[in-house]
Amino acid sequence: MRILTVCALVLALAACSSDNTMPETGGSTAISADAGARTLGVNSYLWHASLDTLSFIPLASADPFGGVIITDWYTAPQAPNERMKVTIYILDRALRADGLKVAVFRQTKTDTGWSDATVSNDTATRLEDAILTRARELRLASQSN
Question: How many CB atoms lie within 10 A of CB 67?
Answer without folding.
Answer: 23
